[in-house]
Design a protein that fits this description.
Elements lengths: L52 E2 L2 E2 L18 H4 L17 E5 H6 L6 H8 L3 H14 L10 E3 L6 E6 L4 E9 L4 E8 L4 E7 L2 E4 L3 E5 L4 E5 L4 E5 L3 E5 L6 E13 L5 E6 L11 E7 L5 E8 L3 E5 L1 H12 L17 E2 L29 E5 L15 H4 L21 H7 L3 H25 L8 E5 L6 E5 L16
Parallel strand pairs: 3-4
Antiparallel strand pairs: 1-2, 5-6, 6-7, 7-8, 8-11, 9-10, 10-13, 11-12, 12-14, 13-14, 14-15, 14-19, 15-16, 16-17, 17-18, 18-20, 21-22
Length: 490
Amino acid sequence: MNGEEEFFDAVTGFDSDNSSGEFPEANQKVTRMIDLDAGRSGRGGKAGERPPQENGIQTHRTCLPAPMFTRSDFSVWSILKKCIGLELSKITMPIAFNEPLSFLQRITEYMEHVYLVHRASRQPQALDRMQSVAAFAVSAVASQWERTGKPFNPLLGETYELIREDLGFRFISEQVSHHPPISAFYSEGLSEDFVFHGSIYPKLRFWGKSVEAEPRGTITLELLKHNEAYTWTNPTCCVHNVIIGKLWIEQYGTVEILNHRTGDKCVLNFKPCGLFGKELHKVEGHIQDRNKKKLFVIYGKWTECLWGIDPAAYESFRKQERRGEPWRKARQGGPAACPVLQGDGPEKADSDEVDDVPVVQETVQVIPGSKLLWRINTRPPNSAQMYNFTSFTVSLNELQTGMEKTLPPTDCRLRPDIRGMENGNMDLASQEKERLEEKQREARRERAKDEAEWRTRWFYPGSNPHTGTPDWLYAGDYFDRNFSDCPDIY
C-alpha cells in the first residue's frame, strides 16, 4: 500500500488524566438547540419523541453518556520516538488518546462566545467594534484550556451543522481535503448581522517533549450592517510533556486582526511561558489606526478574561508600577492561571527531561479604569471526567430523537466510532474507526481506477474576497436540505 492510499489519524495532543466510574450531572442551566429542520413539519419526529422542554425551552444534555476512558495503559513514546521533528499527519494513534468529537465539531467551539459578535454588530463606533472582535478572537481558543485529548480526524466529505436559535447563529462545516487535511466552515447570524467563515489546516509537529500545532488558514468575520470585514489567523498551540510528566498547554504568537474598511488593526501578542512561567497564558496588545496610532490597550489571559484601557492611562499606571506601587487585584477572578492536568506518561524517553510546569500564577490583575471585554464561561463541575469539555461542547455531539431525519448522512453525529467512544464502548469505537478508514482508502482506490476527482459538496476553492489569499468558500444551499447526492462515507 503506497502513501497515497493510506489514511492516518493525526495527533494533536494527549491526556494522562485517569477517570473511571460514574459522575453526576452538572447542575447548570442549559440552553436551546432548535429542531434542525423546523420549517418542515413532517421531519421532526412525533410530538412525544421531542427532547425535554422546560417552560417551552428545549434543553441540552449536561453530561456525556459515559465518563472519560483511562489512558494510563498506553505508551505514547513507543509510537512517537521515531517522529521527532516530523509533520504528524501520517502517524496513527490509538483511539484512547482521542476525545469523542470530530475536528469539525471542535471548530464549532469558536461560536461559544458568539454574543461578542452580536455585540460588535450593535456598536456604532469602529473602535468599540474592534474591541469586541478582538475579544471574540481570543475567546475562540479558550475552550482549549486543559483539552489535551485529540479530536477525530474528519473523513473526506464529512460535515457538521449546528443551529442555535438561542445564540442567534447557524453553522456548517465540511472536510474538503484529505491530503493536506483542510476543514472549511461557514456561519451566519440568524438576524443577518454577521457572516463568519474560513478554512483551517493546522500543521502539527512533534519535538520530543511537546506537540506543536502551527495555525494555517484565514479566519474572516463580516459585520454586514457596517460593511466591515475582519481577518486573522489563530496563535500556535503547544502541548508539553506528551511523553512523561504533567501535561500543560500554552498558546503563543502574534495575532493581527485587520479591519479592511477602516484600516484599523488589533495586534495581540499571546505570550510564551517564559523561563519562570510568569507570562503563561498572558495576552497583551493594542488597537491602532491606519497611521499606527495606538487607540486602545488590551491585556488579560486567554484562559480567563480580557480587559482594555486607554493608552495614556495604561502608560501612566506602568510608570507608577515601575516606581514600586502595587497592582490592584481583580475582585472577580477566573480559573487558576496554570491549566495543568495531573498524571505521568507510561514510559520515559532516553535522557529526556520534562518541561517544568510553571508555578501557579495569580489571576489577571486589573488596572484601574479598565473595562471588561470578555470572561470565560464557568465549566460544569464534572468537566474533568468529560474530557474537560465546556457546557457548550458537551452538547455538540448530542443526537436528539428525530434529528437523524433532518441531517445529511455525512454529519459527525452519525459517525459510529465517535458515538461508540462517547458511549464508553472503546472496542466498538476502535473497530469502527478501522472500518471507516479502510472504507475511505477503498473509495480513494476506486476514484484512482476511474480517474475521477473528489468533488466537494458545500464549499469550493477560491480566493478570500478581502485578502486575495487561497480559501474555501461556501457554495450555499445547504439549508435547503437536498442531501440526495451526499457521499456514503460511514
